[in-house]
Amino acid sequence: MMKKNYNPENERKAWLFLFPSLAVILLFSIYPLFRSFFMSFQTGTLIRQEFGGLENYQKVLTDPLFFRALKNTALFAVGTVPIALIISLAIAWIIFEKVKHKSFFETIFFMPYVTSTIAIGIVFRYFFNGSYGIVNYLLGLVGIPAINWLDSVDMSMTTLIIFGIWTSLAFNIIILLSGLRNIDAEHFKIAKMFGATDWEIFRRITFPQLVPTIAFLSTVNLISAFKVYTQVYALFGGKAGIANSATTAVYYIYDKFHISGRPGIAMAATVILFLLILLITFLQNKLLKKVGN
Fold it and tell me: What keywords appear on the UniProt entry (predicted)?
């Protein structure tokens, strides 16, 4: 008797179980993507829209504020992603190798990840306050004059990058600790038997084994950095810094859509940002593959 090959994709029950997930993906991921692309060619308000061709794209690509937003976004990504990864890797390795009661410290580092960014931003606003902030107080102890972190055009992006680094640490550390646990402990034992130092073990065993994890984190962090918005809103109290000095690409989209009431321009900027993130992610993955080989 011949056995029938079972193919779950052709079973009605399988599709029935998949339907809720597919419906959510279509409704909240696929549909908004196509809707944004369609609206990018429309002019007018949300109620009255007319086909405008490439008019919105022309306005976006000739808007100096949009290019400032892209520049700030790129600066945030370059300043945040590598520094956050390096600090996270150092902290994760210290916890994994040197610290007892690892689960306790993992819980401490994971708490900021599940805490509202808005709430953290309010706390950081007090930390960076030019008059009574703890950061300037600590700088004063070593003879450094107070810095206007929040209300200075020159310091807005620096403050945002510092905040972005801090908010990235929790997720990175947890993922890196998971990667460290997946390394065979026998490698470390054999290396120590032959008298390898901690630095040699890290350089020749730990780091090469963590390359896939670091590649994953760098991709996720880069995409998140180019979509930065909540940190800006939280840190500067709903604004983009003094004189829009901390405007990012997503904040530009938010401003055009909700504040200026120009959804077509906002959606055109969304499509451009989407293509830019897609290109950068593709190039980064190509680069990481070459480095991995």
Answer: Cell membrane, Membrane, Transmembrane, Transmembrane helix, Transport
